[in-house]
């Protein structure tokens, strides 16, 4: 755990310093695009934070090659270098889009290319799926599913990047939960290069998000742009695939602890990576349906994302961001509690997680309601009690 704390603090410090440098350069040379109709901010703001995030990540990747505690992560160096190569491609394309607004076909093609680098060269693939006692996926299906999953998560994360601190904070919470899950899995069942690589990626992403968030907090000095959002999506999808998609069937199906609940043992490792990015995936799905129903490209921009709707409901920028944080924490932590309850042999198995989900869900619904409606409800309850 000491090594991971060093990774978090070092990556966070490097990213913070680089963010300050990038921000100063961007302000000095006016490297910021004009405000678009769908934008929430009113002042031209640099969108080059992804550059600082990328080099913060790269810096600790390189540092980790000299640290004995991360030797297991570098047992298959091709996997790590493929991740960095794919990340570099996404950052270059993202920065170009942030500055010159590239055609969506170019961006999508680059995303598929980056995903292929991770899958085809790095070998990060979904090898098992949780059907029954988990089934082995054929090679062509493995490559196709893995590439598609990475592209979907990249776009999902990118789609919710519309409010100050939203993506950085949501990814901070999501990666913290996935870090805990991966670390527990590595400790209790599968201390392999795959699970340790997932833990390593998530803790580095935690540092990247924590180091950048001070510059992105409302009112933001700088945005991460497509470069940062696509980088986070790429790495989060890869970390999920490298651990979950490589869990051997016998590990979960035949394990004595998981044997108490085949449903939990078989499905939570696949559920958790999905729920930690549930809000981005939901927003992405709704945007695709909404736009295609109107005969438009699913990647054509509009002002009807979930965060836009929150603002239209009367929430302030910060309140809307906190609502997203709350939903992310409640949903992801509840599934993590189900996993812990199962592996720890609690009498109720996953009931503590379900209880947390129910109580937290009700609380989140209440804070999501339009402020005027909440105020009216509080006044009504006060009047009734008196």
UniProtKB/TrEMBL annotation:
Its Enzyme Commission number(s) read: 2.7.8.33
Its record classes its membrane topology as: Multi-pass membrane protein
What does the record give as cofactor? Mg(2+)
Instruction: Using the UniProt record, name the top-level EC class of this enzyme in a single word.
Output: transferase
**What are the transmembrane regions?**
6-27, 48-74, 80-100, 112-131, 137-159, 166-186, 198-217, 229-247, 267-289, 319-342, 348-369
The positions annotated for binding Mg(2+) are: 158, 226
Name one cellular component (GO) term. Answer: plasma membrane
Q: Where in the cell is it found?
A: Cell membrane
Any idea which GO molecular function terms this record carries? Answer: metal ion binding; UDP-N-acetylglucosamine-undecaprenyl-phosphate N-acetylglucosaminephosphotransferase activity
**Protein name according to UniProt:** UDP-GlcNAc:undecaprenyl-phosphate GlcNAc-1-phosphate transferase
Organism whose genome encodes this protein: Microbacterium marinum
Any single biological process term in GO: cell wall macromolecule biosynthetic process
**Is-annotated flag, keyword Membrane?**
yes
Sorted UniProt keywords: Cell membrane, Magnesium, Membrane, Metal-binding, Transferase, Transmembrane, Transmembrane helix
Q: What is the lineage of its organism?
A: Bacteria, Bacillati, Actinomycetota, Actinomycetes, Micrococcales
InterPro entries tied to this protein: Glycosyl_transferase_4 (IPR000715), PNAcMuramoyl-5peptid_Trfase_CS (IPR018480)
A Pfam family it matches? Glycos_transf_4
Keyword hit for Membrane: yes
